[in-house]
Structure formats: C-alpha cells, structure tokens
Amino acid sequence: METNNQGNLQEIKQTVIVDAPIQKVWETVSTPEGIASWFMPNDFQPIVGHEFHIQSPFGPSPCKVTEIQAPNRLSFLWDTEGWIISFILNELDGHRTEFTLIHGGWKEPDVIVPKANKKSSNIYDTMQQGWIKIVSERFKKVVEG
C-alpha cells in the first residue's frame, strides 16, 4: 500500500483484456443492468450530473456521474468519502477490448471511513482485493459470456 505525495493512498487500478468488442463492453459499464450484472444493483443513468445509488453491503451509496465519453470513458463520484470510479475502455481490435477500472480519491491511511467505521487503509486493502476479483473474474465472465 503506497501513498502519493500528499500522503493519501494511491488509486487502485485494475486492467483486463476481454474478448469482446468495445460496444458490448461499453453497454456493460454504462447501463444499470450492465453494471448490476458484475458489480452491484443501482439506478445509474449515463447522463453527466445524474445522481444515483449503488446498493452496497453497507446500504445505499450515493453517486454522481461526472464524465461520459462514449464508448471510452465513464466516471462517477462514489459515496461521501470523495471516491472517484473511472471505467476506461480501449479498443484493441474489432474483437478485444482493454478495460481499466480506477478507484481514486483515497484519503490518508489512518483516516476513518465512517460508513464502515474502519481506517482508510483497511478499506483500501479490502477494496483492492475485491476489485481484482470483480474485474478479473466477474466482469470478464459477464462480458465474454
């Protein structure tokens, strides 16, 4: 677990190459049904400024869409902790797409995350392991299925 030059935890970054065209991958990350199929239930809409909720294990988490550049990039604020989630898609050829998930906006390691009542560093470790499984297994299986 590393920190940046402000003393905050580094962003989490997970990349996977999937055997699917970019449009299929885009639909999986830019629709409520697509996101729910590999992440969590939600009421997402692909509109900048749209406020929505992700149904997390700790209850509903408020989110807000901050960027959409179809079919290559989507970002949203997640919860009240300042987290930023970005999905970045790069077409490799007509049949394969590189998908990168970035989870940024982390605080200093010892800051308590109120909803979980744990240190940011503990949540970071849990989320880092979770994103590995979600991106490399669940997301890949859904997109390639």
From TrEMBL:
Name of the protein this chain belongs to: Activator of Hsp90 ATPase homologue 1/2-like C-terminal domain-containing protein
Matches recorded under InterPro entries: ASHA1/2-like_C, START-like_dom_sf
Membrane-spanning residues: none
Family: Belongs to the AHA1 family.
Residue ranges of every copy of the Activator of Hsp90 ATPase homologue 1/2-like C-terminal domain listed in the record: 19-144
